Amino acid sequence: MITVKDKNSNKIYMLLANVPTSLIWKLKVLFTTPLWLLSTSDTKKSWNEFYYGLIKHDCDYDYTKLEGDKYKHHPCKHYGCNIVSIKDKNGNWL
User: Fold this and answer.
1) Separation between Cα atoms, residue 10 and residue 4, nearest integer Å
2) 10-residue block means of pLDDT along the chain (94 residues)?
3) Is residue 46 domain-resident?
């Protein structure tokens, strides 16, 4: 694992060292790239965050951070990952 610091939010993420190179991975990137390009969202990710967010991995949640306004959650430490946990490390709902 490699750590990356996001310049915009000063968050530190773990970057997956092995980027898949299979044909299925390349097709996944090819077919989802237009969705990223056409997005007009205010919260649009950078290309690197989008690209690394497509890599399948076992999420490692940061239980030291609790984020969110209405619904609290723990973010995944991996760079570009959108997945969050709404349970604490003991499995209790927040």
Assistant:
1) 10
2) 63 68 86 93 87 86 84 86 86 82
3) yes
Task: Please indicate, yes or no, whether the overall pTM of this predicted structure exceeds 0.70.
Answer: no
Radius of gyration of the chain (CA): 15
Q: Is 10 contained in some domain? A: yes
Residue numbers of the domain that contains 48: 2-85
Nearest to residue 48, comparing CAs of 70, 71, 81, 1? 81
Give residue 50's identity as a one-letter amino acid code: F
**CA dihedral sign of residues 22, 24, 29, 30:** positive
Q: How many domains does the chain have?
A: 1
In angstroms, rounded to a whole number, what is the distance separating the alpha carbons of residues 91 and 74? 12
CB 58 within 8 A of CB 76: no
Q: Is residue 70 part of a domain?
A: yes
**Which residue do the tokens 């950078």 mark?**
46
- Give the contacts of 13 (CB within 8 A, at least 6 positions apart): 3, 4, 5, 6, 77, 78, 79, 80
